[in-house]
Amino acid sequence: MTDSGFYWLLLALLGAATGSLLNVVTWRLPLMIGGDARPGFNLWLPASHCPQCKTTVRWHDNIPLLSWLLLRGRCRHCRLRISCRYPLTELATLLLTLTLGWLFPPGILLLAVLLFSWLLLALVLIDAEHQLLPDALTMPLLWIGLTASLLGWLPQPGLAAAVTGAIAGYLTLALLAQGYRLLSGKDALGLGDAKLLAALGAWLGWQQLPVLLLLASISGITWVLLAHLLFRRSLNTPLPFGPFLSAAGLILLICANGYPFF
């Protein structure tokens, strides 16, 4: 196998394995936060098992993508159907990893962007299902962004702009949420969104925050209108904002570090 072929194989394996890890995080973390997990339940224990028959999943039945296909989406023992969200998450992570590997050359910048994208994907999946943005993910995202700027892993934005971006990002949505609550008596945004925007500000710098909010707002409004027109979904249905912030943040990070599409 050529060096290039080995590199892409390594990236593909890394993406699939990370997708498998994200499946664990996005399923277990909300249970832990919500207090629904039994004592001793965490991200690592107990081992992966069937929720119906409680049989531990053996390693050969836990290979990303491949095992689900070979088992035809069912538990080997009780034949309970296994949700397709698991292979889809693994596939999405694999494709995201390969895409970023194509956009960025091997090196510390690629590693930083991969960490950024994987954490965002986990946040998107959790927020879309539970309307929850856990501190256990947003805070590492924030500190990795500040560290990346401090150590010069990112061409942009620089440490001063990163720190300012984190502070400005948090205050922008926190004050907006508080103001809306005082005026209407309702909650529109949670502090999870403010913490996510703080983390994105640490990666992008304060200069990108207006564009980020504009892109996220336009995409969110477009989604609401399409869901209303196509599926008769009520315009008052709560909509998690995290996925739109995350998508806009990833696009802007790619643009700011070598691919100026905008």
From TrEMBL:
Q: Which InterPro entries match?
A: Peptidase_A24A_bac, Prepilin_IV_endopep_pep, Prepilin_pept_A24_N, Prepilin_peptidase/N-MTase
Bilayer topology term? Multi-pass membrane protein
**For the Prepilin type IV endopeptidase peptidase domain, which residue ranges apply?**
114-224
GO molecular function list: aspartic-type endopeptidase activity; methyltransferase activity
What is the reaction catalyzed? Typically cleaves a -Gly-|-Phe- bond to release an N-terminal, basic peptide of 5-8 residues from type IV prepilin, and then N-methylates the new N-terminal amino group, the methyl donor being S-adenosyl-L-methionine
Question: What's the chief localization of this chain?
Answer: membrane
Query: What's any GO biological process attached to this entry?
Result: signal peptide processing
User: Per the database record, which ranges form the Prepilin peptidase A24 N-terminal domain?
Assistant: 13-103
Q: Where are the transmembrane segments?
A: 6-25, 108-126, 133-153, 159-176, 212-231, 243-261
Cellular compartments per GO CC: plasma membrane
Compartment list: Cell inner membrane; Cell membrane
User: What's the superkingdom here?
Assistant: Bacteria
Keyword entries, A-Z: Cell inner membrane, Cell membrane, Hydrolase, Membrane, Methyltransferase, Multifunctional enzyme, Protease, Transferase, Transmembrane, Transmembrane helix
Any matching Pfam family: Peptidase_A24
EC code: 2.1.1.-, 3.4.23.43
Q: What does this protein do?
A: Plays an essential role in type IV pili and type II pseudopili formation by proteolytically removing the leader sequence from substrate proteins and subsequently monomethylating the alpha-amino group of the newly exposed N-terminal phenylalanine.
- Family recorded in the similarity comment: Belongs to the peptidase A24 family.
Name of the featured protein: Prepilin leader peptidase/N-methyltransferase
- What organism, scientifically named, is this protein from? Erwinia piriflorinigrans CFBP 5888
Q: Which gene encodes it?
A: outO
